[in-house]
């Protein structure tokens, strides 16, 4: 620290005023001393008066005490290099070597992060080489934080060397960190790594395998491919499973964009498998590290429990019962009310005599079909309607409305089941509409993409199948679909003021799904083809409705979640159904799930009761990592546990293969008055740092004219002067 003399902030008029004041005061003091007979006491008093005036004159010119601090340690330089996963992109080309193969960005900047490269600066500066944005699950790269924290982290910082590809996806904009350095006079020398244009590449973005499949049933596995090729081309993708199965499919990949498709795999055995999809390397492709993805899938032996409730054994019911009873994955229970009959036959083993009583019996069913039945004597009751609604809403079961010509389902619209129906019916026409000539379905745009209406392997063939299906001669009096419902099929000819009449509609209600079939002529689809389309359609309906409910189940616990294919950073709603050992729903309890991410990081999710009557508990979880998450569900009251897993779709925040962003680094350098230097020009970086001027000294100014001690001194002198005048008898 060095001290400089006291400085004044003066102007000509302040000097003139202060000088005039001192002269006038001196003359006044002399005159007063002479008038008092040159007494010593009076002379001392007038001298004090003149001192006070002189002090005022000095303070009036704003004196300041200036202190300059010069640091004793050497200035420092921070070399900050990007260690995020995007630096593993293989697009770094050495300009000094012609014909060389591209290397990773990290390998390309290795000479710059070698301490030996900065030896020339060590005599004058301290060089600190540190990485930032290390690979962390669910985290990206942040350029703001290392820039903003550098002045506090490194003492006497004179400059920053930022080595990065410029790709940032977290934190505040990097330019804000650059502005903080600009205010401190710290320049940033940016070194860009990687190509600013994406190299020719084919990247497999996603492989959306379902959570589980059924042995012997085809599994549809969607995937997405992104192309950075300038031209369209056709290739063959290959799906391989951990048990040795292999499926291929020809794929046309669009240029400079994304192509979404799916591949079918038919598992033969049960167990936990890993499926891997690979896109072959293109002849012009330079990056081959991202052409393959894997995902887990569980294959099970299926046993779904279905309840069909009907009044009369109409043709639609008979063929539906045959289709479901012959499906090896379905355990069927049928209930026929036979209104008007005093005696009812026993039927075969599929038939039951009454609606299952109590939650413990009803909650066993995954899907319930309601035919032409209603709220009548010896049919459904209000309590049974309430329980059916709760079964769908809380326990994720499915409900299918299949009205008939008797119009009995109209009475259900006045019960709690009315909220579940996906359509609005015309109360003036309870018997529906019939015609002598057959009518036909027509798929909507949503229906063409739905798995429920998929009766052929390709979309074009599927449309052709639906157009060729035998027609129906009766349909329900539907006015329109309710808000939130998905219409899959409409009447090909009939329309009203709301548009085409919906005939096949679905909706989600609570945790379950609801379907409305507006005709009783689906059994005619067997004409000429037997069970080819009829069995397939109803089998798809049952499995679609029971999918969530059967994600994970044990003896006394079930676990399902929505959405069934969660994306990274998307909130996942977890639903647990917990039963007592006696089979009754658990009334209040402590339910928790420990979720372990692919990185090994664990999180405990506490569930809360969503309805004591149904034993339903809900929780929420947000996945920050893509990949397989293991779940251990437990209940303290029942000591039951359930192990499960779910797969989070998406790619990591930091992705390999993206183009570099040198414009970000250029802006940082421009704002801080630094430079953008090529990665192969290390000497220029060192020279630019060496040419930095010495930092200006830190200056501390003490304003004496407004200092509290100066004010106190003035008050003390005035007090002494006043007391002196009283002692000398002047007042």
Short characterization:
With 731 residues, the chain is of the alpha+beta class. Helix 1 (12-35) packs antiparallel against helix 2 (40-60), helix 4 (144-153) runs parallel beside helix 5 (174-183) and helix 5 (174-183) packs parallel to helix 12. It is elongated.
How would you portray this structure in words?
- This protein is an alpha+beta fold and 731 residues long.
- It folds into 5 domains: 2-70 and 700-727; 76-196 and 657-690, von Willebrand factor, type A domain (Rossmann fold, 3-Layer(aba) Sandwich), CATH 3.40.50.410; 202-300, Immunoglobulins (Immunoglobulin-like); 304-550, Class I glutamine amidotransferase (GATase) domain (Rossmann fold); 552-648, Sandwich (Immunoglobulin-like).
- It contains 14 helices and 40 strands.
- The longest helix has 24 residues, at 12-35.
- The chain is elongated.
- The two termini are 51 Å apart.
- 34% of the residues are buried.
């Amino acid at each position: 620290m060095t001290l400089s003399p006291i400085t004044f902030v003066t102007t000509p008029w302040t000097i003139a005023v202060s000088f005039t004041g001192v002269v006038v005061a001196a003359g006044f003091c002399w005159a007063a001393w002479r008038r008092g007979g040159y007494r010593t006491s009076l002379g001392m008093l007038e001298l004090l008066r003149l001192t006070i005036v002189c002090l005022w004159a000095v303070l009036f010119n704003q004196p300041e005490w200036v202190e300059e601090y010069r640091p004793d340690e050497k200035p420092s330089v921070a070399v900050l290099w990007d260690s995020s996963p995007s630096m593993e992109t293989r697009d770094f080309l050495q300009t000094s070597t012609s014909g060389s193969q591209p290397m990773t960005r990290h390998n390309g900047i290795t000479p710059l992060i070698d301490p030996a490269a900065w030896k020339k600066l060590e005599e004058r500066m301290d060089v600190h080489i540190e990485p930032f944005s290390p690979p962390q699950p669910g985290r990206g790269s942040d350029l703001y934080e290392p820039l903003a924290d550098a002045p506090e982290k490194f003492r006497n910082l004179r400059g920053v060397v930022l080595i990065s590809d410029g790709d940032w996806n977290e934190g505040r904009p990097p330019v804000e960190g650059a502005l903080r350095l600009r205010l401190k006079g710290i320049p940033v020398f940016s070194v860009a790594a990687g190509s600013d244009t994406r190299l020719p590449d084919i990247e497999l973005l996603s492989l959306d395998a379902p959570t589980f499949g059924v042995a012997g049933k085809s599994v549809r596995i969607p995937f997405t491919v992104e192309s950075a090729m300038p031209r369209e081309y056709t290739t063959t993708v290959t799906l391989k499973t951990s048990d040795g199965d292999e499926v291929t499919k020809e794929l046309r990949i669009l240029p400079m964009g994304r192509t979404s498709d799916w591949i079918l795999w038919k598992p033969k055995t049960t167990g936990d498998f890993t499926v891997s999809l690979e896109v072959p390397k293109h002849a012009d492709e330079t990056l081959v590290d991202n052409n393959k993805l894997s995902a887990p899938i569980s294959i099970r032996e299926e046993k779904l429990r279905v309840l069909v409730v009907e009044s009369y054994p109409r043709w639609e019911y008979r063929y539906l019962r045959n289709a479901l009873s012959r499906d090896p994955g379905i355990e069927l229970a049928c209930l026929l009310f036979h209104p008007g009959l005093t005696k009812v036959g026993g039927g075969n083993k599929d038939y039951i005599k009454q609606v299952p009583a109590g939650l413990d019996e009803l909650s066993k069913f995954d899907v319930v079909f309601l035919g032409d039945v209603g709220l009548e004597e010896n049919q459904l009751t209000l309590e049974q309607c309430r329980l059916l609604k709760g079964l769908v809403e809380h326990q994720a079961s499915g409900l299918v409305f299949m009205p008939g010509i008797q119009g009995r389902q109209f009475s259900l619209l006045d019960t709690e089941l009315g909220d579940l129906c996906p359509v609005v019916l015309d109360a003036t026409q309870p018997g529906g509409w019939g015609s002598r000539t057959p009518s036909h379905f027509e798929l909507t745009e949503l229906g063409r993409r739905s798995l429920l209406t998929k009766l052929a392997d390709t979309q074009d063939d599927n449309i052709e199948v639906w157009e060729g299906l035998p027609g129906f001669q009766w349909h329900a009096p539907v006015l329109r679909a309710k808000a939130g419902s998905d219409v899959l099929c409409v009447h090909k000819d009939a329309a009203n003021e709301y548009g085409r009449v919906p005939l096949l509609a679905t909706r989600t209600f609570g945790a379950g799904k609801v379907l409305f079939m507006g005709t009783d002529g689906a059994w005619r689809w067997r004409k000429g083809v037997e069970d080819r389309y009829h069995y397939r359609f109803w089998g798809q309906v049952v499995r679609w409705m029971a999918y969530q409910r059967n994600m994970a189940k044990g003896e006394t616990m079930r676990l399902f979640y929505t959405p069934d294919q969660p994306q990274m950073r998307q909130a996942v709603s977890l639903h647990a159904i917990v039963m007592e050992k006696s089979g009754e729903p658990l009334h209040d309890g402590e339910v928790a799930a420990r979720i372990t991410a692919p990185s090994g990081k664990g999180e405990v999710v506490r569930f809360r009761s969503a309805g004591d009557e149904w034993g339903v508990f809900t929780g929420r979880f947000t996945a920050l990592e893509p990949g397989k998450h293991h779940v251990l569900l437990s209940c303290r009251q029942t000591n039951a546990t359930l192990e499960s897993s779910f797969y989070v779709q998406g790619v990591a925040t930091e992705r390999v293969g993206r183009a570099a962003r040198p414009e970000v680094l250029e802006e940082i350098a421009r704002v801080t008055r630094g430079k953008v230097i090529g990665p192969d020009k290390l000497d220029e970086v060192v020279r630019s740092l060496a040419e930095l001027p010495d930092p200006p000294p830190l200056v501390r100014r003490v304003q004496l004219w407004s200092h509290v001690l100066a004010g106190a001194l003035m008050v003390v002198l005035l007090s002494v002067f006043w007391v002196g005048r009283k002692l000398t008898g002047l007042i």
